[in-house]
Amino acid sequence: MALYIHRPLSFLNYKIGFLNICFKKYSICSLLRNPELGSEIEIKGWIANIRKQKHNIFIDVKDGSTSEQVQVIVSSDLNVNTKELSAGSSIITSGSIVKSPKGNIEILAKKIKLISKCSTEEGYPFAPRKEYSPEYIRQYLHLRTKTNHFASLLRVRNSAVLAFHSAFQDEGVINVHTPILTSNDCEGAGETFKVIPDNEHLLKSMAKSGVHVDEIFFNKKSYLTVSAQFHLEALANGLGSVYTFGPTFRAENSKSRFHLAEFYMIEVEIAFLEELKPLLNFVERLLKKVTNNLLDNNISDIVSCQGINRTEFEWLEKDFVILSFDEALNILNCNASQFKKLANAQNGFNKEHEIFLVKYLGNIPTFIIDWPRHLKPFYMKECKNDSKVLAFDLLAPDVGEIVGGGLREDDFQKLEEKLPKEGVLEWYLDFRKFGGISTGGFGLGFERYLQTILKIDNIKDTIPFPRWPHNCSL
Amino acid sequence: MALYIHRPLSFLNYKIGFLNICFKKYSICSLLRNPELGSEIEIKGWIANIRKQKHNIFIDVKDGSTSEQVQVIVSSDLNVNTKELSAGSSIITSGSIVKSPKGNIEILAKKIKLISKCSTEEGYPFAPRKEYSPEYIRQYLHLRTKTNHFASLLRVRNSAVLAFHSAFQDEGVINVHTPILTSNDCEGAGETFKVIPDNEHLLKSMAKSGVHVDEIFFNKKSYLTVSAQFHLEALANGLGSVYTFGPTFRAENSKSRFHLAEFYMIEVEIAFLEELKPLLNFVERLLKKVTNNLLDNNISDIVSCQGINRTEFEWLEKDFVILSFDEALNILNCNASQFKKLANAQNGFNKEHEIFLVKYLGNIPTFIIDWPRHLKPFYMKECKNDSKVLAFDLLAPDVGEIVGGGLREDDFQKLEEKLPKEGVLEWYLDFRKFGGISTGGFGLGFERYLQTILKIDNIKDTIPFPRWPHNCSL
User: Could you tell me which chain B residue has the CA closest to the CA of A202?
Assistant: First the structure.
């Protein structure tokens, strides 16, 4: 009756043995980890370097799977047209896997085919064996992965994402997706972006009399999230400890090397938490675990990214420092001559102060606890008999604050009094009425974490497509 | 000199043995997996059920870490005030771990303390042992995790996130964060949201004469991403195969049970790919691997979420079906009486057609390949000697399309001709000039995947905070 043919995949013809075989098998990374000496292999990649000699051509090939390259030896007997084989060209080569006298894995080419050429004469901005500044490279966002430094950065970034997920899962903390579009301004700092359909026809068809254009689509004004904390608290009040790892937005006119308009934040809310100390300890445990994981599995990319090595990670062997806000302020006041602007209890610390403190304390990540109430948001839990709140910042070498968090006010009356009058936050009280629990949590700036461990000067070089004022390329 | 005290965490006093101990140790999930019979334990959670008998009170406690509950036996000798202990209340209880005659792990309470009560009289919307419709529960987004169904859904969702990540890493596909804010409308369907700072003062301070308000902050109009594909292609042209797993947005006035304004998409771009078949095979391998992983590790949550069990997953043992567009159209035309609206080559298939096709083919996920060129975007690679393109959709039971993808046009001239004149897409051509490679990829709707495997009727019940027209709560 029906004119269709049921053709399960396994009956289709196949050119190469791709079927049901993991893509990874064909990468340079796999080749170098598990070389089967003497066997045939096909490698697809880009030419990193090419050296033409009398009897042989030596081609270093990379394919993005690792910072390492594999050398392909092309005998002149193969009569390869070498004219278009230049650095940056994409090629397919097949040959046998051999070991060089020095012990390196190499490929003795039997066939080599150009996929697509690459030439600086036609505008390719990166010449082989030349170093470029990050600012220069950043002009070519769509070509950045062609540079070794940035490809390494992205591989470390990938491993860090997985290492954070895995560390949370080991602790029984559950991943949730909190909303990007929200009708709340969690931080209340007026740094939100608003969101409206870019379609006059749609807006017209949905319009209602008396409704402002900003409110047509969602029936209320909608913003990009500045923090997922309230949503995390709601979810923790039923699911237990939760975390989210997603994009966060700030409409701030800052072009500093520490700020992005779109950045990634890991936000965590721990359920049934009544003290600050287990939270600080969790942060320390998490950062050490993830960083050790990266050193164990990605050291070649870490070295290739910024040239740093294991000796930069002495802090992993030490306990993080804990200082009260007042103690930190004292240190800064004793070193007043170092700063353009003095620190004070009214305004807290600026970036200059934060970076100084960590350096002063031997480049060990430093928790600042016991914050004056006025420097932290309304929802922070009050210390007993004190004008302080149970909040903390974690300052990291070269970067300053990378984590901020604390315990949440769990006294219903106190919270009700402190709730901002503007904004519709009754729901934030509501889940506390029905079997409410004490929670605490934090937000960790993912790019700042990468900045501190990899010693990257500008945060714009830690994310594939950075967005900041006047810049939303591609 | 300095007035600070270096106090490493390990010297701080500690109330309970929390220090350097994984949070997971204290969960009901851990207790039930590794019970140390006879030893003491402290459990924090919510009362699921309470039965008061003459000599004992039996309390089922849940804490969000698993769909299972643990029974706490409170002897009347303990003189517990049971008045405020009702379903939904949060409690701390400590006691010894025992095994019931039936073999269940239970706690013989020594102490029990109410954290916070919960009562339907004060407005708690969920009575114990009562079933509510998803529509009813959806009215209380901030309380949804207090229901067993939705807590199970979120635990499955968590596991699915991790299973996808792990499946990609096993294949050597690298995770990247593509931008949420972009100056491109990748799909060109006019379903974008535009993004503007919600701060008059900021906009005023950044304003330049002649610049429209939409363009002040980023110097150009900026949108929420509708697809990361172009960015993935750029990254793949240096890093190799890549994927992204993040929020995606569509400003579409649809309240259907298959659409959200904010949803999660897994988008993948495989490098050095010259045929469609390995891509279809990868999709099949991926979905089977992730789903088997969920069945192995989350079966109790899968059952608790929607009451379905392993027998619903027969498709895991079968090869996915592959049909050409024309074959699929033929089937639909042979069954024309089934549809409100006939399918045709001009407009392609609608949801009704998609769901019928999968059912007709025995509820096995079905690839539709060889699409007419006009039904797919400009960047799809053309079949040789044909008006078709090398694109595919994957249709899943009950839901229809969950994956869409194909090979990208790698003929530079052809692509240049087809490039839309509006929109600034030179960069999309540019990375193909310099060692360009053939790639192919797809986008997988994460919520639709959850919908199909868990048989959830409405997509709004697969995500913690659903957003759709007229709805952006919390």
Answer: B253
